[in-house]
């Protein structure tokens, strides 16, 4: 008897916020394992997953402030000539997200002041480790 193996259902990752009220539209990269640092515990504080956690950077479109640029040097009896020039806008890394691959608890931070702007609680079926008597506390 031949049985066909059904593919496992695709895992749906929690959605990252696509907009920040202070920074505007956010574009996210791909989830990657967090770097290992000896002074940081890589385990998830909620479900005790040993790590590493997953991280991703978010970018926003940044337009720098116009700056003054000298277009002509001073000559004897004449002042320098300056003009205001607008720099080119670019995508800048402004956000950082951390997610546990096991329980999907996720926190999103704005990098300029490290304020948490989004929190997604863990999924309950994976966040709470099973106990012998099924009593949580």
Provide key terms for this protein.
10 strands, 1 helix, mainly beta, two-stranded antiparallel sheet
Could you walk me through the main structural features you see in this protein, from its secondary elements to its overall organization?
- There is one protein chain.
- With 137 residues, the protein is mainly β.
- Helix content is 3%, strand content 36%.
- It is built from one helix and ten strands.
- The protein has one helix at 124-127, and strands at 19-20, 24-25, 27-28, 32-33, 54-62, 67-72, 81-85, 90-99, 106-110, 115-120.
- The strands form three sheets. Strands 3, 4, 5, 8, 9 and 10 form a six-stranded antiparallel β-sheet that branches.
- A hairpin with a 3-residue loop joins β1 and β2.
- The mean pLDDT is 82.
